[in-house]
């Protein structure tokens, strides 16, 4: 499968909109929830900014008042939907980037770890494309935007895979069932196949090789597509065991950029 | 082999080197809050000691419950692939406990513990958990215990025991 620039951009914008909408809907639900769901009290968390100027602290106090933060989340969702519907304007792209940073700061840097990081990467790529278009033309600008996303997505898979090679627990299969036992939907059933050492070793090595070989998959867009399809299954499994639904959508949004860039390489 | 692919492979080789040669860790309050810009992309790469929070609560009759709590657990539903706020909130709270554990390891002055944001947020979390288990709870206490690699948490692995806290502070509106 090849993905020309225009189609890659369309797919990127739709998947980003879906991913951001899911995040906003969850954040709004938390805002409306009781004490066990509501965000941590800003009255305590504001001390993270103790070293900042009074103006900065007052600004953040205002931004994180529940009504203001709720409004920001609604605008964030609307801006995300505007990307595929009305096109990626500079205003929408920059607002989404700034707003995503504010959402992360409200949760001490990240609400959901890696999914926040990858969402920011995708929004940075879109901002690069939208900002550079008037200067270098849409084609070059969006190629740059897609590459920003692809480089980080490739880094995420490659590093996540190769770093596991350093740990004996991953190489000998002990780590996988232990980590899965700790998942939010865990522990694994006593008779789970993944408790069998040969299955755990084979599964561990399969994912390590798949992740570490991702840069090589860019050699041909058809191989990239297969790697992304495995990626979709992988992220689904991450949700299945760990409940990380946002990871699924955040990484899915990078796949059009990866396949689009592989298509560019192929020429 | 064409040039972009060669560049990707050279870049990957440089990334691989960072796994062996790591510089000084950058620290700073704003760096912590803006760490989304500096992802290290290392997920579940090793099985290390994992901190968990256990709480016990005291009702109006003065009776203390047993310690309870641990890893966040939930029942899976396919709809949670699209909308999963409660479980994501549980995972966020677990992240808070991990940040508190990291702060405890870096703590040079034990007196400064009660002023730390992560500790104060953990107190709020303990109050919230106690009240959700026992709405009439008047006091709560929490412990941070470590699950050793490939092991289980126990009272012997406690690294922090909080003082007895009043639950009433939890009712303070925010912000």
| Poorly predicted ranges of chain B | 170-175
Q: How many β-strands of chain A, per DSSP?
A: 0
Query: Mean pLDDT across all residues of chain B, rounded?
Result: 87
Helix content of chain B: 25-40%
- Please compute the radius of gyration of chain A using only Cα atoms: 20 Å
Average pLDDT reading of chain A: 95
Oligomer: heterodimer
Termini separation of chain B comes to: 57 Å
Layout of helices and strands:
The complex is a heterodimer of chains A (267) and B (175).
Chain A: H1 5-32, H2 42-45, H3 54-63, H4 66-86, H5 90-106, H6 114-136, H7 138-165, H8 168-171, H9 175-181, H10 197-212, H11 214-217, H12 221-242, H13 245-252, H14 255-266
Chain B: H1 3-18, H2 29-33, E1 50-58, E2 68-69, H3 85-106, H4 117-133, E3 139-147, E4 158-161, E5 165-166
Antiparallel strand pairs in B: 1-2, 1-3, 3-4, 3-5
What is the gist of this entry?
With 267 residues, chain A is mainly α. Chain A has helices at residues 5-32, 42-45, 54-63, 66-86, 90-106, 114-136, 138-165, 168-171, 175-181, 197-212, 214-217, 221-242, 245-252, 255-266.
Features:
heterodimer; A: 267 residues; 14 helices; 0% strand; B: 175 residues; alpha+beta; 4 helices; 5 strands
Description of the structure:
The complex is a heterodimer of chains A (267) and B (175). With 267 residues, chain A is an all-alpha fold. Chain A contains 14 helices and no strands. Chain B has one domain. Helices cover 34% and strands 15% of the residues of chain B. Chain B contains four helices and five strands. In chain B, strands 1, 2, 3, 4 and 5 form a five-stranded antiparallel beta sheet that branches. The N and C termini of chain B lie far apart (57 Å). In chain B, 30% of the residues are buried. At the A-B interface, α1, α2, α5, α6 and α7 of A face α1, α2, α3 and α4 of B.
């Amino acid at each position: 499968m090849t993905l020309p620039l225009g189609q890659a951009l369309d797919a990127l914008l739709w998947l980003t909109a879906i991913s951001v909408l899911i995040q906003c809907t969850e954040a709004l639900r938390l805002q409306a929830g009781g004490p066990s769901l509501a965000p941590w009290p800003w009255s305590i968390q504001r001390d993270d900014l103790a070293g900042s100027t009074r103006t900065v602290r007052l600004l953040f106090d205002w931004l994180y008042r529940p009504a203001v933060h709720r409004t920001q989340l609604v605008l964030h969702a609307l801006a995300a939907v505007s990307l595929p519907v009305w096109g990626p304007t500079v205003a929408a792209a920059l607002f989404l980037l700034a707003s995503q940073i504010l959402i992360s700061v409200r949760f001490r840097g990240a609400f959901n770890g890696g999914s926040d990081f990858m969402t920011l990467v995708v929004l940075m790529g879109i901002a690069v494309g939208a900002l550079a278009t008037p200067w270098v033309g849409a084609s070059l600008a969006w190629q740059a935007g897609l590459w920003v996303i692809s480089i980080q997505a490739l880094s995420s898979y490659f590093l996540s895979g190769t770093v596991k090679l350093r740990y004996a627990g991953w190489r000998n299969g002990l780590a996988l069932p232990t980590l899965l036992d700790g998942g939010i939907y865990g522990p694994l059933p006593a008779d789970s196949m993944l408790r069998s050492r040969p299955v755990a070793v084979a599964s561990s090595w399969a994912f390590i090789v798949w992740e570490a070989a991702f840069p090589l998959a860019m050699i041909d867009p058809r191989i990239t597509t297969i790697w992304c399809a495995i990626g979709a299954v992988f992220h689904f499994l991450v949700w299945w065991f760990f409940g990380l639904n946002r990871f699924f959508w955040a990484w899915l949004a990078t796949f059009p950029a990866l396949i689009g860039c592989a298509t560019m390489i192929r020429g | 082999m064409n040039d972009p692919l060669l560049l990707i492979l050279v870049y990957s080789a440089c990334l691989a080197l960072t796994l062996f040669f790591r510089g000084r860790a950058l620290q700073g309050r704003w760096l912590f809050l803006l760490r989304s810009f500096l992802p290290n992309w290392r997920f579940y790469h090793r099985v290390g000691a994992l901190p968990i929070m256990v709480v016990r609560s005291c009702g109006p009759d003065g009776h203390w419950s047993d310690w309870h709590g641990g890893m966040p657990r939930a029942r899976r539903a396919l709809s949670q692939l699209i909308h999963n706020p409660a479980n994501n909130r549980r995972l966020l709270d677990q992240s808070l406990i991990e940040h508190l554990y990291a702060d405890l390891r870096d703590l040079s002055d034990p007196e400064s513990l009660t002023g730390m944001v992560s500790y104060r947020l953990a107190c709020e979390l303990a109050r919230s958990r106690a009240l959700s288990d026992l709405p009439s709870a008047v006091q709560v206490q929490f412990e941070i215990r470590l699950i050793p690699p490939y092991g289980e948490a126990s009272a012997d692995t406690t690294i922090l025991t909080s003082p007895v806290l009043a639950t009433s502070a939890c009712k303070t509106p925010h912000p």
